């Protein structure tokens, strides 16, 4: 046991350095990652759909201020080639009922993250899970009195394209019995935090079922093999035997 731990340590370092080399090699990133980004760009919903999605988050979070914010999808070029959101005073800076703050971003998630950034940093609001404070918006001024950002606006670029969330067992021990209402709240929370890569194991067993059936394994044998809803994570990892 002791000696294998000693021998595995340099191997771990070796993998670590290979990983570093991959991460720092722009050629590899160019060939593999840019293809993934191209596919994602092609699959993205039209700007109007993404803007409406961000508006939907606002409508559920702070319906009193639905007309105070305007959302606009912008190109990555406008963001200096990086994922970003940007916040400016709305050009039509009007009185009551008129939009006051314009939020731009490369995706619906970035628009929502920009909304959260504004509410947090300019209105001192707090948006969290219920058990860590929940949603506290009483410090947000009334429509018509929202704080301005400085005239140059705010530009927040992300250093990395992916903002990851969840681990392999959360779907079983936390969210297994959630209904849509609870999921919608979580998805809104994710968007407000700028998460664009949540782990979604949903449907894993349906794929395995198809594959195993090609090998003529019967449904009743498969039903014995797959875990129950609350244990799916552990059966997926091969930790359950029955
Ligand atoms: C599955 O069963 C069918 C019908 O008996 C047979 O033709 C096929 O070769 C089997 N497939 C495998 C992978 O054993």
TrEMBL record:
Residues 52-147 form the Alpha-N-acetylglucosaminidase N-terminal domain. It holds the Pfam family NAGLU_N. The keyword Membrane does not apply. The keyword Hydrolase applies. GO terms for molecular function: hydrolase activity. Keywords: Hydrolase, Signal. This is Alpha-N-acetylglucosaminidase-like protein isoform X3. It comes from Cinnamomum micranthum f. kanehirae.
